[in-house]
Amino acid sequence: LDRPARTAAADLTLRRGAARVLLDNWTGSGTVPSRTLYPHQWSWDSAFIAIGLRHLSARRAQRELESLLAAQWADGRVPHIVFNSAVPNGAYFPSPDFWRSSTAGHPAGAPASLETSGIVQPPVHALAAWLVHQADPAESRRRGFLSRVFPHLTAWHAYLLGARDLGGSGLAAIVHPWEPGMDNSPCWDGPLSRISPIDTGSFRRADLDHGHPADRPTDLDYGRYVRLAADYRDASYDDRAARHAFALEDPCFNALLTVSEHALADIAAELGADPAPHRARAERLTETLVARLWDEEAGAFLARDLVSDELVRERSVAGLAPLLVPGLPASIVDRLVGTLDGPGFHADATALVPSYDLTGPAFDRTRYWRGPAWFNTAWLIERGLRTHGRHAHADRIRASLLETAGGSGFAEYVDPTTGEGRGARSFSWTAALTLDLLH
Ligand code: 9WN
Residue limits of the Mannosylglycerate hydrolase MGH1-like glycoside hydrolase domain (predicted)? Predict the structure, then answer.
């Protein structure tokens, strides 16, 4: 990892390459994660993309978030996919005819004028909105950006801490493996084993048109993903009526909610509103996160399975992401940094953090969220380390992220044992977060 410092010329080339990806993936109102594999707008992708896009065009970054929030449901949920009606149905599965959001006539109140999925993704949006505002406060005030997005963001958090507090603990629950954004993480293997898969012959996986089968979730995973999504849809996406055979409190999801609640406090203060309720909620979330999900023996936060009410004893990068939370007890910060440096998460080939414990029984260096290192989680850990003053460690991750992003053609993820790119290329959040770290 002792590599020569980057030159200004290398930074310029990298900045141009990253900007090119974001320009190519812009559709006019938002950005697709990938032109091939993911040809629609994704929720947490858009938040990460806006964080990078703000350095190219603050206005475009605002529009990225606004177009996503325009698809918000009446109950406050922000859907994980907003479909582009110009893209053919077969280009991505599950498509609008599976989710049936606009026609279901259900109590959750999906918009009638566009098509979305019915599940959610991690709440990075308020953090992104605050960072986008900070990139150009004058332009943001001129367009009334924060005052327009603030009610959407508060309704979004109210949904998560209301209808989605399935454990009654004060944390938000995920009800589908697509919701934490880490689809086939080994953390879900146990809870998913209880779900009977839908026959894989009954649908067609469009992801395999572009992705290598060894890099993607298995057919058995997909059979279960489809079963869970269909059951939720058939319960009209009503969290009270749905049985939720899969329900967990995920540490990364809730850490992002906590940090976003702090961002809501900052936004409220900027708008002349009272930040105190948001600050208090962020502090409550921090305490609950520690009380419910911290595991001293693992040296990491663990997901809690709400069906069995037990912690899932698998360590993943999601359990290190709470480093982002500013009010974390110092002893926990020390322990998390130790885990990052230990054999489970320190890879020699790259400082990007593997998605799953290198020494864990399910580790797979190529299969998606079962080992590969991702750029969004590296960005979160980098930011978390800086939050707690660990700048030298953060510098190592930053340098590795910049080098690997450019060298891999802005890959979706990398093999942590070799540093080699895998999955899609010209991947938007890889480019966006590269731009952010170059500033
Ligand atoms: C399902 C778009 C999304 C990311 C997720 C990533 C992957 C989708 C898929 O792609 O999930 O939502 O089809 O595999 O796991 O984090 O938001 O980039």
Answer: 38-430
Can you give the C-alpha Rg of the chain in angstroms? 20
Answer left, alpha or beta for residue 414, where phi above 0 means left and psi between -120 and 50 means alpha. beta
Ramachandran category for residue 417: left, alpha or beta (phi over 0 → left; psi -120 to 50 → alpha): alpha
Range of the domain at 50: 8-438
In a domain, 1, yes or no: no
Average pLDDT of span 70-88: 97
- The domain that holds 390 is classified in CATH as 1.50.10.10
432: left (phi > 0), else alpha (psi -120 to 50), else beta?
alpha
Give the nearest ligand 1 atom to 207 CA: 13
Q: How far apart are CA 338 and CA 346, in angstroms?
A: 10
First to last CA, the chain: 22
Residue 274 lies in a domain: yes
Q: How far is the CA of 181 from the centre of ligand 1 (A)?
A: 6
Of the residues 183, 221, 231, 415, which is catalytic?
183
Residue 3: inside a domain: no
Tell me the per-residue pLDDT of 173-215, one tens digit each, with 9 for 90 and over. Answer: 999 999 999 999 999 999 999 999 999 899 999 999 998 999 8
Q: Hey, what are 427's tokens?
A: 């991947």
Give the model confidence (pLDDT) of 103-144 as tens digits. Answer: 866 678 999 999 999 999 999 999 999 999 999 999 999 999
Q: How far apart are CA 358 and CA 259, in angstroms?
A: 28
The residue whose CA has the least distance to atom 6 of ligand 1 is 181
Instruction: Quickly count: other Cβ atoms within 10 Å of residue 345's Cβ.
Output: 27
Cα(48) to centroid(ligand 1), Å: 13
214 CA from centroid of ligand 1 (Å): 16
On whether residue 348 sits in a domain, the answer given is yes
Helices (H) and strands (E) in the chain, counts: 15, 10
Active site residue 403: no
DSSP label at 300? E
Q: What is the pTM of this model?
A: 0.98
* Catalytic residue list contains 183: yes
Could you tell me if the CB of 429 is within 6 A of ligand 1? Answer: no
